[in-house]
Design a protein that fits this description.
heterotrimer, A: mainly alpha, 74% helix, disordered C terminus, C: Rossmann fold, disordered N terminus
Chain lengths: 321, 381, 309
């Protein structure tokens, strides 16, 4: 137990935790959206995020962007990477829906089966990057850690009360919050968003009222995937790495964040993500980073035991998203 | 094309199952006995073309008896997981945790060089090289698994099905992280010197040794048959009926007097114990354990065995375990592709045949009805 | 109308022992008051009707009695013992059984198995007992295996009988056998024995309703609560259901009947309690209740029922 180190640097640990949490929150949105509409834990969502990180890596490679590149290349490469990652993740999420979930929905299969196909999809995606692509394209695909060039150097922007905030931290937190706000506005105020909420509240009635359920479900997967893509971009800015199985832990943590905030509740995902990020950084300072990954599981079990509806309560429909 | 093949398979399978169910005992018993004897004979199988199923024919093949042993170990685990998933309807994604518990129980208490036995020996001034005998490790492993099953189950079994899946998955990972990070488990390098079952000495060697692997296989096979018998007894009793009722409608079951929570906990604990027995046998044969041998992927593997074979049906589960363990060993170049193939197989089987290859009779019916309902609903709109 | 037999039936409840006592029960969900100071009791051997317009709190009252909800205030006592605070399965074992308004059978189990689940409420075989079957019981003569009608040859049956005499039988076997016998008897009693081996989901609607009654009776209750057992029945079916309810009472059970159909309630019950908006507005003999102006007012929205009453 290392209390002094935690107390002395409480501010910087908190900012660090918020940065981490912002990424969890963005990924958590994918779980929450799909759960809100389908009452289904999209187990393959973690891999949707993983695909995003690889896409960023690919785009950088295409632009030949490295730490030494000029400002123009950096801006171009990062913006293209952002768009590409968003598209790739959204596309992956959509593909998972079409291949794995839709046929089961048509057969009216019990929920357990969905979870199992989701695990199957997850394995397939992981192995594509961990093994299959390596057979065809060689490295860097495979089981090794891949480092992604640092295009934006970490610089301390300003210091508040002894806590220095870096440009990366600022980008990550603001980027995540911005995406959340956009999504929230979309779901609450657009016509398509109204459809999403209608299906979340009562699929049958919504169908009778002329809402195309399949379209709404596709939309939800695309939105969730896009959020995961942005999260992937922010993640690579912050950590500069990817790996074939990177999705698993982020996925579990994001799911924890979603449950913590109240699964199915968009704002809950933000609250849950930020909180989890901070708790995780605190606990890894207190104990040892070896135990860091246990934190999320312990938090998850505790939340489910004591308040399974999460902090803000469940339901995409009822809680006004 | 694929659907017609699938349909043809479904019809043939159903006919076979019906014939079997209605067959008289004097036909069934000899068939079962013959099958069991054949299983015991398998390590010596050398008559072509049947010997083609052996895995050690070509160069670089795996020892055939070792493969058989592993298949049976996984079958034990799958039969245990089937109690949880197939009978009680609880999705447990952390099953590897119990498997690891069994393996580490025999390692930590049975190996003279494990931190735990060394600490006990020091504390009580026991002689150097003291360790708990193998036979005593079995109840220890089972007890640990039962306790772990109850500790995990008691708070979580009230959760919705999908939450339960994630929490159990977390549990599986926590077990592995604890095994990796703790001093008393030997850390990342694990434990060596795990004891083997006692037996008469043969040719100057222990009965169970690393050369005569077929004996391990036989041992595991006997354990498997006993456990299957036990699970069958439970299935065809008040307990099995209660599990079924809980799976169908938990609230109604409780109001009809079924102590739902208690029976769910039992299912969990029994599954845990079977997983631990499988882990224990595996560790004992290997002689070493290390935390990385118990990754979450193994959990998914177990789930895949149960589900692909047809959850709830003992024969289906055995077939599932066999296919998933055997195929990658027989086709060696394939080994690296194993997880990918599982993924594809899981998706394909679930999408094409959600009830599994050899479903439980009841389950088969249920899926058929659900499909009809979906069709009718579609027709209504 | 079968009012002519009413007097006789009320007198036919010999002892006045109170089986269930609902004492000033109030139940609130958030701000909604579902039950407000409801107060009545059921005596042994009677058929009590609990009626009221839709949303009057009948089913809520039921749920409070079977432990689904705990009352916000007030007491529910069964044979002098507190009901609230116990779990559903414990309450069942105390001797209260119920059926469901919206049928809740175990759809993938056969009719027989459904009833067996009910029988299991009185069985004692534990998990270990089912596993090892080591707890041997010496069967009473009537519990020995039958010689005929077991599907086995005579020689096999004799052998089984002999071994049972010498070595005793495990409790599991004994209970299984007794349960099967009892379940079949109950299926015959409610009149659906011909479909005993069909899955519950494949039974016709009327059979499912009767199966629910058989399953509830299998738990050997002292008080049987029927939640709208005649919903969706045609007049002929209702008639035979009324006969069934009387036969249930004749077996010594006390019956609490929630029902919408006034004719059915009037015809079969000994006493009636009327709820409206979560409050008791009347209680008494069917004839008294039927002429009670408050009840008539409450039912005015449903002229058919009021007219037939």
């Amino acid at each position: 137990m290392d209390f002094t180190s935690l107390i002395d640097n409480l501010g910087s640990h908190t900012v660090d935790g918020l940065t981490k949490g912002a990424i969890y929150a963005l990924v958590a949105l994918g779980y929450t959206l799909v759960y809100g509409v389908l009452r289904l834990i999209n187990f393959a969502h973690s891999e949707v995020f993983m695909v995003g990180t690889w896409t960023v890596f690919g785009v950088y490679a295409v632009f030949n962007a490295t730490a030494a590149s000029g400002v123009g290349t950096v801006i171009l490469a990062t913006s293209v990477a952002l768009i590409a990652a968003t598209l790739a993740s959204a596309g992956t999420a959509l593909a998972v829906e079409r291949i794995a979930y839709r046929p089961l929905r048509k057969k009216n299969a019990p929920p357990l089966i969905f979870l199992i196909t989701a695990i199957g999809c997850s394995l397939v995606l992981v192995e594509l990057f961990g093994h299959v692509f390596r057979q065809f394209f060689g490295p860097p695909f495979g089981r090794a850690l891949v480092s992604i060039p640092t295009l934006i150097d970490t610089k301390v922007l300003f210091t508040v009360g002894g806590v220095s905030i870096t440009n990366i931290q600022l980008i990550v937190i603001f980027g995540a919050v911005l995406m959340m706000v956009l999504l929230d506005l979309f779901v609450n105020y657009s016509r398509l968003g109204r459809g999403v909420r209608a299906v979340a509240q009562d699929p049958d009635t919504a169908a009778l009222m002329g809402v195309n359920q399949d379209r709404v479900i596709m939309l939800v997967f695309v939105l969730g995937g896009a959020m995961a893509g942005v999260a992937a971009m922010l993640y690579t800015l912050r950590y500069d790495i990817t790996k074939f199985d990177i999705g698993f832990l982020i996925g579990v943590k994001a799911f924890t964040a979603a449950v913590l905030g109240g699964i199915g509740n968009l704002r809950g995902a933000l609250v849950g993500g930020l909180l989890l990020g901070v708790v995780e950084v605190y606990s890894s300072t207190l104990f040892s980073s070896n135990w860091e990954d246990v934190t999320a599981f312990v938090v998850l079990i505790a939340v489910l035991m004591f308040r399974p509806t999460g902090i803000l309560g469940e339901s995409l429909g009822k809680a006004r998203a | 094309m694929s659907t017609t093949l699938l349909d043809r398979y479904a019809t043939a399978r159903k006919a076979l199952a019906d014939n079997w169910a209605n067959g008289p005992i004097w036909v069934k018993l000899p068939i079962v006995l013959a099958l069991i004897s054949f299983c015991f004979y398998l390590p010596y199988l050398n008559i072509l073309p049947f010997a083609q199923i052996r895995t050690d024919l070509g160069a670089g093949g795996t020892d055939w008896s070792s493969v058989l042993f592993l298949i049976v170990i996984y079958m034990i685990a799958a039969v245990g997981l089937n109690v949880v998933i197939g009978l009680a309807g609880l999705l447990d994604l952390g099953y590897v945790g119990f498997y690891a518990l069994g393996a580490y129980s025999v390692a930590l208490f049975g190996s003279p060089s494990s931190p735990v036995t060394e600490a006990i020996a020091r504390k009580f001034d026991l002689s150097e090289g003291w360790a708990v005998p193998f036979a005593a490790c079995i109840p220890i492993a089972i007890a640990f698994a039962l306790v772990a099953g109850v500790i995990l189950g008691a708070p979580t079994l009230r959760l919705r099905g999908d939450y339960l899946a994630i929490v159990t998955m977390g549990f599986g990972e926590i077990i592995r992280i604890i095994l990796r990070n703790s001093e008393f488990t030997g850390g990342p390098s694990g434990v060596i010197g795990i004891p083997k079952p006692p037996g008469p000495e043969q040719d100057g060697r222990d009965y169970f040794n690393s050369l005569d692997v077929h004996r391990w296989y036989w041992l595991a096979l006997i354990v498997l048959i006993l456990l299957m018998f036990a699970v069958r007894r439970l299935e065809h009793s008040r307990v099995g009926r209660s599990w079924l009722a809980i799976r169908e409608d938990e609230d109604a079951a409780a109001i009809m007097g079924v102590p739902a929570f208690k029976f769910k906990l039992w299912a969990f604990a029994i599954g845990a114990a079977l997983g631990a027995i499988a882990g224990l046998l595996f560790a004992s044969k290997q002689g070493v354990v290390e935390p990385n041998g118990f990754r979450l992927n193994l959990s998914f593997l177990f789930v895949a065995m149960v589900v692909i074979g047809g959850s709830g049906n003992m024969v289906g589960v055995l077939i599932g375990a066999f296919l998933i363990t055997y195929l990658p060993e027989r086709f060696r170049g394939f080994e690296q592709w194993r997880p990918f193939a599982f993924g594809v197989a899981l998706v394909a089987v679930m999408v094409l045949r959600p009830q599994g290859l050899v479903p439980n009779r009841r389950r088969a019916k249920e899926f058929e009805d659900r499909r009809h309902e979906a069709k009718e609903a579609a027709a209504d709109v | 109308m079968s009012e002519l037999s009413l007097e006789k039936q009320t007198n036919a409840t010999p002892d006045d022992e109170v089986v269930l006592e609902v004492d000033q029960v109030t139940l609130k969900f958030g701000g909604v008051v579902a039950l407000n100071g409801v107060d009545f009791h059921i005596r042994r051997g009677e058929i009590l009707g609990l009626i009221g317009p839709n949303g009057a709190g009948k089913t809520t009252c039921f749920n409070a009695m079977t432990g689904v909800y705990a009352p916000t205030s007030g007491n529910i006592r069964f044979l002098g013992k507190q009901v609230s605070g116990r779990q559903s399965h414990q309450i069942t074992r105390m001797g209260i059984a119920r059926t469901f308004q919206n049928i809740r059978l175990f759809p993938e189990m056969s009719a027989l198995e459904n009833v067996l689940v009910g029988c299991d409420a009185r069985h004692k075989t534990s998990v270990l007992g089912a596993l090892f079957r080591a707890y041997r019981v010496r069967p009473k003569p009537e519990e020995l295996p039958e010689i005929t009608g077991t599907g086995l040859t005579r020689a096999q049956s004799r052998l089984r009988r002999a071994t049972a005499k010498v070595f005793g039988v495990s409790r599991h076997t004994l209970e299984e056998r007794a349960g099967r016998k009892k379940a079949m008897e109950l299926l015959r009693f409610v009149g659906i024995a011909d479909r005993a081996n069909d899955l519950a989901r494949n039974l016709p609607y009327g059979y499912q309703r009767r199966l629910e009654i058989a399953r509830a009776m299998a738990t050997e209750p002292q008080l049987l609560c029927l939640d709208e057992p005649a919903a969706g029945f045609n007049p002929a079916e209702k008639e035979s259901l009324m006969a069934l309810i009387r036969r249930i009472r004749d077996r010594g059970l006390t019956v609490l009947l929630i029902e919408h159909d006034m004719k059915l309630v009037m015809g079969v019950t000994d006493r009636i309690v009327v709820l409206e908006f979560g409050q008791k507005i009347a209680e008494g003999l069917p004839s008294e209740v039927a002429s009670n102006p408050k009840v008539i007012a409450a039912y005015l929205g449903e002229p058919d029922d009021a007219a037939s009453a």
